[in-house]
Amino acid sequence: MKRGGLSRAKALALRPAELPAVEVGLRRPPRRPVSGWLDRQGRALAADSREILASYHAVKGWVTRVSTREEHEGPDYTVSVAYTREGALEQRALRFGFDRYHWAVGGDDHLSWWQHTVLPGGALTLLVRPGDRDDAADGREPLVVFGNLMAYRRRRGRLFWAADRGAPSAVAPEVFRVQTLARRARPDDLVEINNEIVHANRNARWEIAAACGDAAAHVADRDPLIHWATACAYVHVGRLADAARAAARAVARRPALAPRMRADLDLAPLRGRADCPWMT
């Protein structure tokens, strides 16, 4: 882990309007009891994880930047986070490597948490070692992301994922991801937005794809493929007027798309509409 991140102004611009409170079991000051934290199988957490939960301060921070490097066994992530400590803004860059084994052990809860949270602007709980502002000489990290401890709590006989997810519960992870990417809207972000909508379309998740298109509408002119993918989703949810407008924007911004879009069966219901002259 190393220090680093964005300028203060840019980091604060990504701060969620309202940071949620830290998880209930972490609100007590160190040293806090840790017997209630369990692993995915309902067993006690590993000793090092229990020590972190007992002795580290819990603060709510947010993600400021994420970069990915593809490796044979899975992607490596560099995640920059920000938080306030004693009234001062702190930023750190953390490295995570997730191979196939890790995702298999972590399970769907961890993957879902990652998809919701580890995006610019996502809120997440950080565990900060008391008194440490630099890497500890004994090898213990001064900053740990709570979600990566993969802790669970037992309620009414069932195990529940303990880390708070950084998106409102009513927002699907795909839509939250598009919302976050659209706030930054760099060229590679626009590609990722289009890929998210296309992926939802291919899996016939039309409502999700349409919601993603809604979230990206204000940046779609910069990549007309987003308009095209969104128009397909709108057709399938019955929003034909919206589909016609999105398709028209795609053609207006990039006329060369018109022949391919005319051949797109998803857009066939637009044929013959007065507001879709390009379809004839």
The total beta strand count reads: 8
What is the helix content?
Answer: 25-40%
Kindly state the mean pLDDT as a whole number? 86
Strand order of the largest sheet: 1-4-3-2-5-6
Shape: elongated
Q: Which structural class do the helices and strands define?
A: alpha+beta
The H-and-E topology, N to C, reads as EHHEEEHEEEEHHHHHH
Q: How would you characterize this protein structure?
A:
The protein has 280 residues and is of the alpha+beta class. It folds into two domains: 2-161, no CATH class; 173-279, no CATH class. The chain contains nine helices and eight strands. The chain has helices at residues 8-13, 47-55, 100-117, 173-184, 187-202, 206-216, 224-236, 240-253, 258-262, and strands at 2-3, 57-69, 76-85, 88-97, 123-128, 143-145, 152-155, 158-161. The chain has a six-stranded antiparallel β-sheet. Strands 7-8 form a two-stranded antiparallel ribbon. α7 (224-236) runs antiparallel to α8 (240-253). The mean pLDDT is 86.
Q: What tags apply to this protein structure?
A:
9 helices, 280 residues, elongated, 6-stranded antiparallel sheet, 37% helix, two-stranded antiparallel sheet, 19% strand, alpha+beta
Topology:
Layout: E1 2-3, H1 8-13, H2 47-55, E2 57-69, E3 76-85, E4 88-97, H3 100-117, E5 123-128, E6 143-145, E7 152-155, E8 158-161, H4 173-184, H5 187-202, H6 206-216, H7 224-236, H8 240-253, H9 258-262
Antiparallel strand pairs: 1-4, 2-3, 2-5, 3-4, 5-6, 7-8
Helix pairs in contact: 4-5, 4-6, 5-6, 5-7, 6-7, 7-8
